[in-house]
């Protein structure tokens, strides 16, 4: 009985060790900087204002990564709410406005200056919702302009539209072209339309978030929806950036080229390391795997942890 009690206690200690080892023990933000705003983590190179440590400087790497924290609950980039930041895949999730057209006097189109960010082509779709509606997604960068869009016409078939579908009747969608930045979104309806009941609505939204419903043709329920932005550091590629004083990839990390953005690079921890590759401390060795192995061996030999 005493032996079983000791084994049971050992199992509990090992489980607690693994739980604490699983928690991110590495630094994600700079010293003296806020590492969260509300429920959102703020990892470097992003940052809020300046460090509370004298002469430490700003909490962000570049101006494009500067964020604000409103009332300690809402993380904001420019005038957009930020709901997630990933340094692993180099993406940030923001809530962006829906463009709508109700009539010539009631219409709204949205614009987004993205600077060193681009609209993720893999993680988003462009949609237009309405009967006899069409929408444009425009991009302007380096004095070049290009657009995409889609149209949706009901043609008397509104009763045949199914909820959850976006096939061109009541709702249409298209993929995002590569390297779209500094975007504007416009929604319109066709002249002399007799089927439009509500407004025409166009927007970019992250994959899987929006679910079309026929009722949205009469009253669209959203004014903002989440979209994913790809981000990179610097303005040059890896080869040109290595060795420079502002090279962002720190200890035990690799430089990754980013073709989907068009400039800059991203950093990633080397295999067997974890942490924030942009942080001055760099990436650290991953010690959790041996603990997991020891834990599994203990369970297998004693079978005490089942109770």
Rg estimate, integer Å = 25 Å
Summarize the amount of helix as a percent range.
Answer: 10-25%
What is the spatial order of strands in the main beta sheet?
A: 3-4-5-6-7-18-11
Average pLDDT value? 86
Number of strands: 22
H/I helix tally: 3
Question: Describe it for me?
Answer:
Helix 1 packs antiparallel against helix 3 (288-302). The two termini are 14 Å apart. The protein has a seven-stranded mixed β-sheet with strand order 3-4-5-6-7-18-11, with no helix packed on it. Strands 9-8-17-12-15 form a five-stranded antiparallel β-sheet, with no helix packed on it. A four-stranded antiparallel β-sheet has the order 10-16-13-14, with no helix packed on it. A hairpin with a 7-residue loop joins strand 21 (273-275) and strand 22 (283-285). The chain contains three helices and 22 strands. It has 307 residues and is mainly beta.
SSE inventory with pairings:
Elements lengths: L1 H21 L13 E2 L2 E2 L5 E2 L17 E5 L3 E4 L2 E7 L4 E7 L1 E5 L2 E3 L1 E3 L4 E3 L4 E6 L3 E9 L2 E9 L18 E5 L7 E7 L10 E7 L17 E8 L6 H4 L11 E5 L7 E5 L3 E3 L7 E3 L2 H15 L5
Parallel strand pairs: 3-4
Antiparallel strand pairs: 1-2, 4-5, 5-6, 6-7, 7-18, 8-9, 8-17, 10-16, 11-18, 12-15, 12-17, 13-14, 13-16, 19-20, 21-22
Helix pairs in contact: 1-3
Please describe the structure with a list of short key phrases separated by commas or semicolons:
307 residues; mainly beta; seven-stranded mixed β-sheet; five-stranded antiparallel β-sheet; 22 strands; 36% strand
Structure, briefly:
The chain is mainly β and 307 residues long. 13% of the residues lie in helices and 36% in strands.
């Amino acid at each position: 009985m005493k032996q079983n009690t000791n084994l049971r206690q050992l199992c509990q200690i090992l489980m607690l060790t693994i739980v604490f080892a699983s928690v991110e023990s590495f630094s994600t933000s700079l010293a003296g900087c806020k590492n969260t705003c509300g429920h959102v983590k703020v990892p470097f190179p992003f940052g809020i204002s300046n460090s509370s440590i004298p002469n430490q400087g700003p909490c962000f790497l570049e101006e494009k990564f500067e964020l604000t924290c409103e009332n300690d609950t809402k993380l904001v980039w420019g005038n957009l709410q930020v709901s997630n930041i990933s340094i692993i895949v180099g993406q940030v999730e923001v809530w962006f406005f829906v463009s709508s057209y109700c009539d010539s006097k009631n219409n709204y189109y949205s614009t987004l200056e993205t600077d060193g960010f681009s609209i993720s082509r893999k993680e988003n779709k462009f949609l237009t919702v309405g009967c006899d509606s069409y929408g444009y997604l425009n991009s302007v960068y380096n004095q070049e302009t290009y657009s995409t869009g889609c149209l949706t016409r009901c043609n008397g078939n509104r009763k045949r539209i199914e909820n959850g579908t976006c096939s061109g009747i009541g709702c249409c969608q298209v993929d995002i072209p590569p390297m779209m930045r500094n975007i504007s979104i416009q929604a319109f309806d066709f002249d002399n339309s007799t089927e439009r009941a509500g407004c025409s609505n166009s927007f970019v939204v992250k994959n899987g978030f929006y679910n079309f419903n026929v009722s949205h043709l009469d009253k669209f329920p959203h004014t903002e929806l989440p979209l994913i932005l790809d981000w990179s550091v610097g303005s040059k590629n890896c080869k040109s950036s290595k060795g420079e004083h502002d090279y962002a990839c720190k200890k035990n990390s690799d430089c990754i080229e980013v073709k989907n953005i068009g400039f800059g690079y991203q950093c990633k921890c080397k295999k067997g390391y974890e942490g924030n590759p942009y942080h001055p401390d760099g990436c650290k060795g991953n010690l959790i795997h041996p603990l997991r192995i020891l834990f599994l061996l203990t369970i297998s030999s004693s079978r005490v942890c089942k109770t």
